[in-house]
């Protein structure tokens, strides 16, 4: 029997060490079998039984509030200055100021001054001491333990003023960390608010306003001008321009008419639409985006795994160093105990791993959130980091670099038949074919209004073409190879075929076993944006851009030349694309594959990073790829690479800052220049720099 699994949203989860402690407390509940805490998305999944009251009791040390994930509720927005802990910090600051005023008038050793400082320490640090002392009894060494030891130590050696400054600065540091995580998570919250909670549903001749949870698949949804679409659906009546920027990141509204798909959260700009609901509220594209983004934020990136492992050994090591600094000089060098204990406490404070621990998650959460708002789904920190290190990008041709909708460009007769007859014969045979080029021929025949012939005994000739009987004559349509096998193609016709292929066109011959009657040339139009996208990628420093196509060499080369690609691999079957990706990885290391996620699934899966486009329309793309570009366009690819590179740089800068500042502060201990308040200032400064630096990623815009 499978265990029940419940998901909850959390409010007030501010720091990574609090999150780890909260998770441990929940694991200690006997009825709980497993816990998965997602710090980035501020969510928790619990396997087993636990009430909301039990969960809130487990997070009481940090005032964590818990509510069911699918519970519709507006989060209480408490202004920064009205939060209880921040109010206490303000009172603590007031006493701190009085304390320094008192020490300059009646002296710092007077009982009144000590009392004022002690009040400042108690009011500002009460919650900190409660946790810190409890941790100390259990020998759990985290940030709060270090701070508690440092502040109590300062009071014991008579440094009351410094102890009070440390309490206040630590409170400020915690408040800033909490504020920054809230800001980083805001991008997910804004995604959640995109789709409306109710929709107008038509049943019979009546219209009702219904909660989205109560809407059934198949219901008819009314979407008026200026309204947001509440559910994914298919247009039944009407036409309109729909702004779907929230889902796909496309800034230009898309024209929708009968049969087109509409997404929950998109905005109906002008017309009146009736649409049939096609998905339940939890299966809509926007719900999937939110779910995937939250899952992505829970995944630890390689650099975060390294930092987390490092912090595990780093904190006890700092405590050991602090102890040695405090006792070795007085024991073996007859130095002053109070002075060296003070220096040991300064080591404790400066050694706080706070900035280091937050350096990676805050950058990754911010970048993934920003990408989602711009119509790019990145499925985890690891894919974000890998994208930042890419050297080579391979593209599928059809539907990726090209429109994916081939058009007939030439119809040529080489016999007594007219061009319309050639087209009529071709369309009669291709009516039975599944080949993508067949649809282009049928479209052209319809436009030209040619006579309709009836074909019998249709037979597909795998990879080469097809044949059928028309008016008691067997006609063939297919590649030059097919006709070459039956009889040699005259030199003159061969030259014409080569000329068309060099222009990037696919040539299909029409004829009988005895004679070539004519041919058609079909071309898949290159997307207008493809050239500028390839140029942008080359400017970003991508060493190689490669096109993988099933088309012939000549067509592939013509498109490759038109787009300025480094290399073209043509005549590839799906398994050849897979092999091509494997060999590119062996030669160049990090390789991305960009495709439409359906027939390219194996190649997408074997690339370092699989990037699927058109994610808003296909579940396959969302599931097989590491990154999904929600719009059916490559426009967002350079933005994604630039964002990933910027994130890698930000993480490197963060770790360097956090380390550098601590190293500098530790060096100041040797001449005895490092005071306690300077130590906490260094720690707070590092945290603040790391956070602000990470929040710069919110400003990465799509150009």
Automatic annotation (TrEMBL):
Pfam families: E1-E2_ATPase, HMA, Hydrolase. It is found in: Cell membrane. Keywords: ATP-binding, Cadmium, Cell membrane, Ion transport, Membrane, Metal-binding, Nucleotide-binding, Phosphoprotein, Translocase, Transmembrane, Transmembrane helix, Transport. Residues 4-67 form the HMA domain. GO terms for cellular component: plasma membrane. It catalyses: Cd(2+)(in) + ATP + H2O = Cd(2+)(out) + ADP + phosphate + H(+). It is an enzyme of class 7 (translocase). It is a multi-pass membrane protein. GO terms for molecular function: ATP binding; ATP hydrolysis activity; metal ion binding; P-type cadmium transporter activity. InterPro entries: ATPase_P-typ_cyto_dom_N, ATPase_P-typ_P_site, ATPase_P-typ_TM_dom_sf, ATPase_P-typ_transduc_dom_A_sf, ATPase_P-type_domA, Cation_Transport_ATPase_IB, HAD-like_sf, HAD_sf. Its main location: membrane. PROSITE patterns: ATPASE_E1_E2 (PS00154), HMA_2 (PS50846). The chain crosses the membrane at residues 90-106, 112-129, 313-333, 345-369, 655-674. Gene3D superfamilies: 3.30.70.100, Calcium-transporting ATPase, cytoplasmic domain N (3.40.1110.10), Calcium-transporting ATPase, cytoplasmic transduction domain A (2.70.150.10), HAD superfamily/HAD-like (3.40.50.1000). Its EC number is 7.2.2.21. Belongs to the cation transport ATPase (P-type) (TC 3.A.3) family. Type IB subfamily. PANTHER family: CADMIUM/ZINC-TRANSPORTING ATPASE HMA2-RELATED, CADMIUM_ZINC-TRANSPORTING ATPASE HMA4-RELATED. This is Cd(2+)-exporting ATPase.
């Amino acid at each position: 029997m499978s265990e029940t699994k419940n998901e909850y949203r959390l409010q007030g989860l501010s720091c990574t060490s609090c999150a780890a402690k909260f998770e441990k407390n929940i694991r200690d509940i006997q009825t709980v079998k497993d816990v998965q805490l997602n710090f980035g998305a501020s969510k928790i999944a619990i396997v087993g039984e636990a009430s909301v009251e039990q969960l809130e009791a487990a997070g009481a040390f940090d005032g964590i509030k818990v509510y069911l994930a699918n519970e519709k509720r507006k989060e209480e927005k408490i202004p920064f200055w009205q939060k209880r802990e921040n109010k206490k910090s303000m009172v603590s600051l007031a006493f701190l100021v009085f304390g320094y005023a008192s020490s300059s008038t009646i002296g710092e050793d007077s009982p009144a001054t000590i009392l004022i400082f002690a009040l400042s320490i108690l009011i500002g640090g009460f919650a900190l001491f409660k946790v810190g002392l409890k941790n100390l009894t259990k020998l759990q060494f985290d940030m709060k333990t270090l701070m508690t030891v440092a502040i109590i130590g300062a009071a014991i050696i008579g440094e009351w003023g410094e102890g009070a400054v440390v309490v206040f600065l630590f409170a400020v540091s915690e408040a800033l960390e909490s504020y920054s995580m809230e800001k980083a998570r805001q991008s997910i919250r804004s995604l959640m608010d995109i789709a409306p909670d109710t929709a107008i549903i038509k049943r019979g001749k009546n219209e009702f306003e219904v909660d989205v949870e109560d809407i059934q698949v198949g219901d008819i949804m009314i979407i008026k001008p200026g309204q947001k679409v509440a559910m994914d659906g298919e247009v039944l009546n009407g036409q309109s321009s729909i702004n779907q920027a929230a889902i796909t990141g496309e800034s230009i509204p898309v024209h929708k008419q009968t049969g087109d798909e509409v997404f929950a959260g998109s905005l109906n700009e002008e017309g009146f639409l009736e649409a049939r609901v096609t998905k339940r509220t939890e299966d809509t594209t926007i719900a999937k985006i939110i779910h995937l983004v939250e899952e992505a934020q829970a995944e630890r990136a390689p650099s975060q795994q390294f930092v987390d492992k490092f912090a595990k050994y780093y904190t006890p090591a700092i405590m050991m160093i602090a102890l040695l600094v405090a006792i070795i000089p007085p024991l073996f060098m007859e130095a002053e105990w109070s002075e060296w204990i003070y220096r040991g406490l300064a080591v404790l404070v400066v050694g706080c791993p706070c900035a280091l621990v937050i350096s990676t998650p805050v950058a990754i959460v911010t970048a993934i959130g920003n990408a989602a708002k711009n119509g790019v789904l990145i499925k985890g920190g690891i894919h974000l980091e890998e994208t930042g290190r890419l050297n080579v990008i391979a593209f599928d041709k059809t539907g990726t670099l090209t429109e994916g909708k081939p058009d007939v460009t030439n119809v040529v007769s080489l016999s007594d038949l007219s061009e319309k007859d050639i087209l009529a014969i071709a369309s009669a045979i291709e009516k039975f074919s599944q080949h993508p080029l067949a649809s282009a021929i049928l479209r052209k025949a319809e436009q030209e209004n040619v006579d309709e012939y009836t074909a019998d005994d249709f037979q597909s000739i795998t990879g080469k073409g097809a044949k059928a009987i028309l008016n008691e004559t067997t006609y063939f349509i297919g590649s030059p190879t097919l006709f070459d096998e039956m009889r040699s193609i005259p030199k003159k016709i061969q030259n014409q075929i080569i000329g068309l292929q060099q222009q990037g066109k696919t040539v299909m011959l029409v004829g009988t076993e005895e004679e070539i009657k004519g041919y058609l040339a079909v071309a898949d139009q290159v997307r207008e944006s493809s050239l500028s996208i390839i140029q942008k990628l080359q400017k970003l420093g991508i060493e190689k851009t490669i096109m993988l196509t099933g088309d012939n060499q000549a067509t592939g080369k013509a498109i490759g030349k038109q787009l300025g690609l480094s290399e073209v691999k043509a005549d590839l079957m799906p398994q050849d694309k897979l092999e091509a990706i494997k060999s590119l990885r062996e030669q160049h290391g990090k390789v991305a594959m960009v495709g439409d996620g359906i027939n390219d699934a194996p190649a997408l899966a074997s690339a370092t990073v699989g990037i699927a486009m058109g994610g808003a329309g296909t579940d396959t793309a969302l599931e097989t790829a590491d990154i999904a570009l929600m719009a059916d366009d490559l426009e967002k690819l350079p933005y994604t690479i630039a964002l990933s590179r910027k994130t890698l740089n930000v993480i490197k800068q963060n770790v360097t800052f956090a380390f550098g500042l601590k190293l500098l502060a530790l060096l100041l201990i040797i001449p005895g220049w490092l005071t306690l308040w300077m130590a906490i200032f260094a720690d707070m400064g590092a945290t603040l720099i790391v956070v602000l630096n990470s929040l710069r990623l919110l400003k990465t815009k799509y150009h």
